[in-house]
Design a protein that fits this description.
With 920 residues, the chain is an alpha+beta fold. The longest helix is centred in the N-terminal third of the chain and has 19 residues.
Amino acid sequence: MRGAEGKPAFLVGIDLGTTNTVVAYAKANDAQAEINLFAIEQLVAPGEVGARPLLPSLRYHPAAGELAAGDLQLPWPQQDLEHAVLGTLARQLGAQVPGRLVSSAKSWLSHANVDRQAPILPWGADADVAKVSPVAASASYLAYVRAAWNHRFPHAPLEEQELVLTIPASFDEGARALTLASARMAGLPTLRLVEEPQAAFYDFLQRRRATLRDDLADTRRILVCDVGGGTTDFSLIDVAFDDDGEPQLTRSSVGNHLILGGDNMDLALAHLVETRMAAGVEGGMKLSAARLSQLMERCRAAKELLLSQDAPDKATVTLLGGGSRLIGGSRSADVTREEVAAMVVDGFFPKVELTETAKKGRAGIVEFGLPYAQDAAITRHLASFLQQHQGALPDTLLLNGGVFRADALARRLAETMAHWRGQPLTILHNDNPDVAVARGAVAYALARRGQAPRIGGGSPRSYFLVLGEAGKDHRAVCILPRGSASGEEIRLTERLFALRLGRPVRFHLATSLFEAGTPPQLGEIVDLDAGEYLRLPPLASVLQAESGDKRDITVQLATVMTEVGTLEVHCVAEADASQRWLLEFQLRADKEEQGDGEAQAVSPRIKEAIEKIERIFGGKAQKVDTKEVRQLRQHLERGLGGRESWDTPLLRQLFDALMLRARGRRRSAEHERVWLNLTGYCLRPGYGDTLDPWRIEQLWALFDTGVQHHKDNQVCAEWWTLWRRVAGGLSTEQQLRLLDDFAFNLQADAAQRGSRPVTLVNGSDDDMLRLGASLERIPGAYKAEVGAWLIKRLEKAGREAADTNTLWALARVGARQPFHGSAHEVVDSATVAEWLHVLLALDWKKTEPAAFAATHLARMTGDRSRDIGDELRATVLTRLKAVGAPPLWQAMVSEVTQLDEANTKRMLGEALPPGLKLIG
C-alpha cells in the first residue's frame, strides 16, 4: 500500500547492527505521527514464535536432522532453502553447539583482506557446515525483516516504503557499496544511508524537540560516541544559534573505522575463562575457534549481568560439552563483578591523558579472521581523534550502543572527558541505546521532509584523485571537498583526461581521515604522505560508445555525494556533457595494488625496447635469425638494465607490447618460448597495477587455444611457467581450470594421454609441482589433495633424498598465510599438523628446505581456525632452534610477524617487481 499519488505509507528506519537488527517506523503522511518500534516475529525456541524489538544479527546453520521441520515454522513462507535459523533461537543454539553460528557479519563487510562476497562464514567451521558470505549474511537479515514486515503489513510492502538504513560513520566507500548490495539482494533496491552516530543524535532531537532550545543552550560542540558490538564510531556535531535563537547543527568530523566494540570485550573475558577452565587439565587446554566462539556467547551474557545495576557478586560461565576432543564434558568457571569491571572498564576505557595516542601497528589482534584494532583502549582512540580534529573540546556528550547499558562504562568515559576539559560535560540522555539508531533513522527521514530539525555538514570527508605525475603517486587533487552538499554534482574542470573508448579506465581515489583547519578546495593539490589518508578501491569502467568505435575522447570527472549517502563519480565527455560513464568501485581489487602504473614514469628507452619486440613478433615479417630471437631478453636488458630492476610500470608496458603482438609467437618454437617467458615475467605476479585485471582477461583468452608448438618440451614448460607467474591475478574459476590440467598431467594413463586434445598442454611433474603450489584461490580441500601428492613424493624419496622443490611446494600449499588468496581457503590445521609430523621425521640439518617448509606450515597468524596446536608449535620451534634456523623463521612460528624480502622471494619462487610489496 502506498499513500496518495503513489507515495509511501510509512517511513522505516533499519539499524543493521553487528549484534542486533532493529526496525522503527512512522506514518509517512502524518506530521504528528509517533515513531514506533517494529516488533519482529522470530523463533524464540524450537517451534515457538515470539515478537521482539531486537532481532539478533545471527545465523545458525543446523546439521541435517538436528531440528524437525516444525521447529523452524514461521508465520510466513520461508525463502532460505538452507533452513538457516535467524534471531533469538540462533543465539540459543549457537551457545550450545560450536562452529555453526554466523556472527559479526557487519564487521566482515569492512574487512578488505578477504573476499567479502565468498562463502566464508562461520569462520573456521568444519567442511560439512554450510557457509555464507558476509554480504549474503547481511542480506539474509534484511530479507527476514522484509518478510516479517510484509506479513504484518501485506498492503504496504517494505520495498515500497521510504527506507533509511544505518551504517557506521567510518565505513569506507567499499563497505557502503557492499551494504547497498546486501539490500538489493534482500529485495530492497531503493533506500538511503545515514551514519549511525547521526541517527543516534536525530533520535535525541526528535525526543527532545519541544525543549531543544533549552537543552542545547549552553552547548557548542557535541561528541557522539557510538560503541556497538563490533565497531566504535566518533562524530563531532557543532552547535550555533540563528537570529531567532534556534540551534543550527553541523556535523563537523567523523572518526576512523575501528573494529573494536562489545565483541572484543566478550573475547577478552572468554580468554580469562578459558584459562580458568584449563586449570587442572593435564597438558592444558586450548579451545578451537568454534568452541571459543561458543564461549564468547556465554561470556557476553555474564558481562551484561555483572555490569548491570544491582549486579550479583559473581556469575558462573558454563561451556556445554559437545563430544569435542578438547573437552569431554561441560566445564564451568566463576567470574566476579570486580574482575569484569577491571577487565572491561580499565582495559577498554582506561584513564588516559588527552595527549596520548592510540597504538598503531601493521597487524592488530586477529581472532576468527577479523583484524581487530591493535589498541583496545577506546579512550585512547578518542584522545587521538580529538587531537586530530582541532578546535574546542566537546562540552556535551551523547553515548550510544549496547555497551553503554553498563553504567560503569558510561561513567568512566564521562569522567575521563571531564578530566580533559577540567570541568564536567553535559550528558544528553539516551533512554534506550539498543533502539536509538533505528528510531533516529526515521527521525532523519522526517527531517528530510522538513518535519524535524536537520543536521547539516554535507560530505564528512574530502575525496582526492591520485595523480601519479612523474612517478610521484603521493600527490592528489581534491575532487570533492569536505562539507559538499548531498546531491550537488561537482565538476573538476581544470583537469582533462584523454581516454580511449572500448578500453577499461581506472582511477585511484583517496579520502582524508582527518583534516585540521580549512578543508582543501576543489582542484587543490595535497601530499598524501603529509597527512592521514585512506586509499579507496579503484574506480573503473569501460567507456563504451553507442557506435562501438574505438576513438580517443576527452573527459572530465564529475563527483557527487548522492542522496543515498554514497560517493558517485562519472566521466563526462568535454564536448558533449550528455555522454557520461559511471565509474564503479572495484571491491575485489587486490590489497597490494600500488597505484596507477600507467601514469608513472618509465624508462625513456622504452621506445627502443618496443621496437625490438616489434622486430621479433611484429605483424610485418622481418628477416630475423633464431639467435636474435633467443637473445631478445639480453637485447632488452642492454637498453633497460638487468630485468631484476624493471619496475611494475615498465614491465606492464612491455607486457602490453608483447600482448599486442601475441600472434607473432607462432612463427617458430623459439618465438613461442621467448614470448611465453617474457610475457609471464612482465605480468608477474598477476596484480599490482590498476589495469592488471584487464590484462589478465586478455591473456586468459589464449588459454583454451594452448600452444602452437605442442611437441616442443621447452615451449610446454614455458607455458606452465607463464600461468604460475600470473596465478595471483587469476580468479577462483580460472585457477580451478588450471587445476584440471594439473590433475590430467599427473593422473592420466597411457590411453588417456593418447587421446589428449592438442590444446591441453603437456606438463612434467616438476612443472605441475610449481603450478599446483601457486593456486592459492582453489578450495582448501583441493589444496589438501595437492599436498597429499607432495607428501607421497617425500615419502617415496626417503629421508636422505627429500626433494627441495617438493618441500618448497609443500610450504606454499600448506602456508598459514596466503599471498594472494583468501585466508578462508587455507588447508585445515589438522591436515597441516599431519604434514608437519612427516617433516619432523626428516633431518633438518642435512635438508634445510624441510625447516623452511615447517616454518610456513607452523607460522602463527593469531587466528585459531588456521593455527596449529601449541604443543606441536613448541616442537617445531625447538627443532628450529636446535638446527640454528634464522631468527625470522623462529619468530614466524612464535609470534605474528611479516616476511622479509628474501623469504618472500623464496616463497614465491622469484622476486617481486621492484616497488611492489605483499602484505602477508
